[in-house]
Design brief:
single chain, 137 residues, mainly alpha, 5 helices, 0% strand, Transposase, Winged_HTH_dom
Length: 137
């Protein structure tokens, strides 16, 4: 086993020397990866990241949902760009864009601050009262 790894090391070191001699440090550090598959969406179309981060489907006139999901994005991509993608493909795209799914949180945007303060005071009073009752038993 040691002989095999030693041969591999010599082979790899030799390749690095040859590459350096062919074109210097730039050629040595140049990593050409295979091109891979052509993406379904162009770079411009992949700017969907900003759309998902800054808007909701309601904001862009796409349904009544308050958060994006793969089903909504699938129909949005189909209608907007004319590209048919699977939901799994959209999940992978979102992952490449460094987006992950989180459960939406409810947020009372139009809550009355005065009523909220009153509720918090009442809640504290209830907590204290139940704590006193619990200690008396």
């Amino acid at each position: 086993m040691a002989k095999m790894s030693q041969k591999w090391f010599i082979y790899a070191a030799n390749r690095f020397v040859v590459r350096f001699n062919e074109g210097g440090l730039d050629h040595l550090l140049d990593r050409r990866l295979p091109p891979g598959r052509v993406p379904f969406l162009t770079e411009e179309q992949q700017e969907m990241r900003q759309l998902v981060l800054t808007t909701t489907p309601v904001d862009v006139g796409w349904g009544i949902s308050s958060s994006w999901n793969t089903r909504i994005l699938q129909s949005y991509i189909q209608q907007t760009y004319g590209v048919s993608m699977s939901r799994e493909g959209i999940q992978k795209l979102l992952h490449r864009l460094r987006l992950s799914w989180t459960r939406p949180t409810d947020k009372l945007v139009k809550g009355d601050p005065v009523l909220q303060v009153a509720f918090e005071k009442e809640l504290e009073f209830i907590k204290k009262r139940s704590f006193v009752r619990h200690r008396q038993k």
